[in-house]
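Hi R.,

Here are the chain sequences for the assembly we discussed:
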Amino acid sequence: MERFLLKNIDSPDSAGIGEYLRTGGYASLKKAFGMEPADIIAEVKAAGLRGRGGAGFPTGMKWDFASRDPKFPKYLICNADEGEPGTFKDRPILEKNPHLLIEGMVISAYALKSERGYIYLRGEYPHARAVLDKAIAEAYEAGFLGGDVAGSGFRFDLSVHQGAGAYICGEETALIDSIEGRRGQPRIKPPFPVNVGAWGKPTVVNNVETLANIPLIVSMGAGRYSEIGNPECPGPKLFSVSCCVERPGVYELPMGIPLREIIYEHAGGVRGGRELKAVIPGGISTPVLTPDVLDCPMDFVNLPKRGSMLGSGAVMVFDDTVCLVRVCWRAMRFFEHESCGKCTPCREGTGWMRNILERMEGGFGRDGDIELLQDIARSIMGKTFCPLGDGAAGVVLGFLRNFSDEFMYHITNKKCLAESG
Amino acid sequence: MDIMDEIRDLSRKYPDRRGALLPALYVVQKEAGWLSQEALDTVSRALNLPQATVKGVATFYAMYKHRPMGRHLIQLCTNVACMIMGAERLVDLISGRYGLEPGGTTDDGRFSLVIMECIGACDRAPAMLVDTDFHADLTADNIFEILEKYE
Amino acid sequence: MIKVTIDGRDVELEHPVTVLEAARKAGIEIPTLCYFEGLSPFGGCRLCLVEVEKLPKLQTSCTLMTADGMVVRTETEQIRAARRSMLEFLLINHPLDCPYCDKAGECELQDLVARYGPEAGRFAEGKRRHPESFDDPIIVRNMERCVLCTRCIRMCSELQASYSISVTGRGSHSFVEPFSGGRYDCEYCGNCLTVCPVGAIMSRLHRHSYRPWFVEKETETVCGFCGVGCSMVLQMRENSIIRAIPRRGVGFNEGLLCARGRFGYEYVEGGEELTTPLMRVDGELRQVSWEEALSFTARRLGEIRDEFGGGAVGAVASGRCTNEDNYMLQKLMRFVIGSNNIDSAARNYYAPAQIYLERIFGQGITANLIPGIANSDGVFVAGGDPTAINPILGLKIRAVWRSGGRVVVLGVPGGLKRFVPYELIPVPYSEEIVLSAIVGRLLERKPPGGANAALEAKLRDLRIPSDDELGSTGVSPEDVARVSEDLSSMSTPVVVIGPDMVQRRRASKSLFLLGAIAYLTNARIFLLADRPNYQGLLDMGCLPELLPGGRPVELEMFRHKAEEALGMKVPEQRGLNLFEMIDGAESGRLKALYVMGENPVFNLPDGVRVEKALGSLDLLVVQDVHLTETARLADVVLPATAWPEKEGTYTNLERRLQRVRKARRGKMASYGREDWRILADIAGRLGMTKTYQRVEDVWEEVMHVSALHTGLGYEEMDGGRALWPYYGEPLRGMEGDFTVEGLDGLPEVPAPERPYLMIERPLYHSGTFSRRSKALLAIQPGPYLKMNPELARRHGLTGGDKARISNGRGVLELEVRLDDDMPDNQVHVANTFEGFAAMRLAGFGTDPVTGALYMDDNTVRVEKVLR
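And here is the predicted structure of the full complex:
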């Protein structure tokens, strides 16, 4: 497939504005200034773009809500807090194609009548920080940011706000708290950020990849854009493929591509020709699946039917050498570490589950541990303040639904099925 | 530029001074590698925020350090992909070579080791940051080649 | 109208509220931990989960707003199971140390587990450990017990607006901490103790000494520290106070207290209370019987009255004593001994300020409701830090800021520092010029409407300073413009006046200018009161010129009414005020002084002079709880009971009458007698025929004598209806004639070489009672010399050094404390601690117009004490 989002990234100068302009960059911006803001929103709606951060909320609808709110100023925030384990899809855009993101943000801001934008970049991406700072400076220099963007009279200021190591800040209200200089904890909704967001003003938070799609929609038009991939949720999609494959990496592919194609055609198949045991389709907080899911189209519509989610499109492939108890334990350690502490079930439950899994993995599993884990997870599920706790519970329930034998083996034999196999 | 001015300058990017809190904490952390009570107080005064508020925010985020760190901070990812690709073995190797446990600092103050949650380099796992330098595709063979460059 | 169905009950709501509030309205109790009425919703504990039809997941009722047609169930098996799970989660890291924990018995977590289970925990891993923190003398933190409901954090930031604690860390390693991680650097309001549902934040005052169910008796009373008059409950065990707590729904303080109110009660049982009357025999105070002391006192008073006339006797009333006590002292003086020489320490500022403002605007001008401040859109403060003098009133000012209003402070903002948009700190004693400039600007912006002709006539004569003339004040014309712009933009402003605007030369002009600001902006006036009953003693007639009910003694009509009511005579001429009495004692005109609950030697300026004056009296009677500096000079000392040991009433600064109730009684209570009883006994010995059995009898007489108090019995007070203007319209608007000193001039701003000594009014102490509270002493153990670092540097001083301040009146050696917010050329010392009477070093005079005290010649030499 033709690459749109990762166009040019193989060029050594791909991050520079010169290279970007040379390959047609900022043309969509100029086109957008010829359109009415409302028309751009309508175009994004018509294109059927769904948020690429994980939840898959229709972007045009979000924009519509924010633009209908009479309050000003409005803020546009790019969520570049890519912290979901297994996910690194935004990184190539941030590090190698930053002007695509900036162009997307300026167009979005114009559509939303926002004059101030922030890129909330995770603290763990220091290189991306340097690249973005440089790209923003170039964009100011070239007149694509600032008081009079490309001579249109439209004003838009943009800067990077760096996070400092908190996965929860990927949740948009926690992210807003973090930009405001607070402990990044999710806020009560409603009100939603589109009405009461950063500093109490209407705020749109969009993922990097989502915003990078905007220039594409403007240049192609909604009609042509929506022909890419699954018509129900169209567009190009970045998949990060990792763990036990021959060629891990980020792949730009049409939405709805079967999982099998991603793993076997693009990522080179399971490493060393080993047997595929399990796959997490959308980042660590999406439930693990068995190989019989290989023909499922990878999109927001079909994966839920198979008991998981597209999430961030982070495909984690596990072969038969991987101990899934250990993977589950490590995932839970992550959730425990990242739980913000606001609500009871997530704060206390993730640690409890990690404790049990740690025991189990260390050969000290007890009878009843599996039932206890399931019970804890069910007690968390649906009762947490934000989706982080649900994610943690879903991970445990997913592993136990599909691989309970391996967990049982661990308890009974005090060792790993993978090692014995 | 005076550190107070630098912090106040940051706050111009935000509609209120509190917005500059996270960047301000980075500014003071850059000085000593960690955030002492004095450093937190500096931020509190520069932004006219209550001390307790500043501390509450600073301790929420994992990348702000609240004890002295070594000259070089090794931030090694051991999350699922890195773990599968051998990060835990690297932890053992580092421990063996430098006597450095996760969360600890070498006696000579050269290195501190912190275990990171995913640093978004799963395709080139295992990976780490040393200070702000990114290193990936780590192996038992190249890990010390890299680390030894940091005095 | 919103209609919702909760557990089958239809609930109709005028405005959308949360499901939780709607349920409570319908009498359905949904369990909660993180919810606390008055604090913002949090939604963290997940115990208030309910089922809502058409919503797939359980919802937290504390955050979900009701919508028309909503159908809610609050107790189904699914909900009970969820609550059980949440409690099981909470108990993972919560130690099961209930037998050791002081909270047991009133622990919300314990109660919830008893109601919902689990019967047994399944958590078989190691619990999180976090050592209990004893770093603070007052508050013990046990973060293992913390359930992270954040009620304390929200209390501290939203209502107290102190921002002294925060959650540190993340996830299950989140802990509530002050900045230091150990000792608190906070206002010690203790309101976090009120809201903590578990034993995570607890008071150390009675640690491990009782269980909640050991509380034998609760007494609802009013705080005895300041003029706000917060309601509180004293919890008693074996006649000892184990806790002073606020209660929501009782009193207007809405469940809030300050450091003094919550922790300062211990002074009443510190062991230093007087146990018997004392009499001077051969130059020494010796213990004597009550009979001996009372008969001696009555005999001597009678002799002096008979020999020199009633005018040779004077009395000092007390802002800490009840209305009944003060009334009785006034009766003894006026009607029995025949002297109008009665005054009190309210003379310092409160009484003259109020009388003067009432002369301009009419009686009751300062009788405004404290809770109403929070509804204002702006506050102008001058003359003191309300958050220290009247802390709960101060919180209402912070609330104005919180709801977007503007707070402007003339002078050092102190506890309002975080809430003022800019600082406005004039050079000492130049405030009058700044205020004149502000009034000048306001007159341009808001021409007066003609309602108060006398005031407006004076305004026409007011000398408005030019921009150049502002030069000496340190306040720029731009600042003045900004303030007047802010003031004129307020639609419901409040003007708060503190002591420092009164205790100065030309007090009348400062008060007139503040009154003019209030008049021009249509503001309500509040006068800060650092004693609980300053207002009451004025209303009881403890003033040389006013009878009970505020009626001038020199007007025959009023005098006759009083004489008729009591069947006794009153002298026609006004009496001596406090300072005139000191003069009188010095000159020998005054022979006897009866001091009730006051410590003039310590609390008045120029203590050496006061001491000498009192020493030359023929008779000094001191009636007090402790052997104070003044009592040590007395011929007779009569032990009185303290605030929690007596019945009576206080009138707060909003003129709300409230009941003070006896909590301690019996053998453990001090040996003193109620002030009014001692006075009635002496009056009886001097010929008063009326007798009183109970305190109600005294009050009935007050209602009979004072027109202000007609028909205002204890029953009305209990119903919260005893509030100025009681049953009628306020009397304000009856402005009379008044004088303003120096209206058409501008004062020279003095520029002394040596710094001024100013009196600090600390949050943690008040007067000389608080220094007997172990808790308050633990918070602030002693005095210090506060100054800014630049001034310190000029004197070769730094924080922690010992410095000597001195002038012709005395010497004090104090530890230096640096404070960036202090203006230049002044040092502050609290007038509280034994041996550190700062007032002693100040000279004083009496303002010719208002009769207020003014500090004079109060500069000091500052030098380092070399060790």
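Residues 324-420 of chain A form a domain with the de novo design (two linked rop proteins) fold (CATH 1.20.1440.230). Residues 196 and 351 of chain A are 33 Å apart (CA to CA).

Let me know if anything looks off.

Best,
T.
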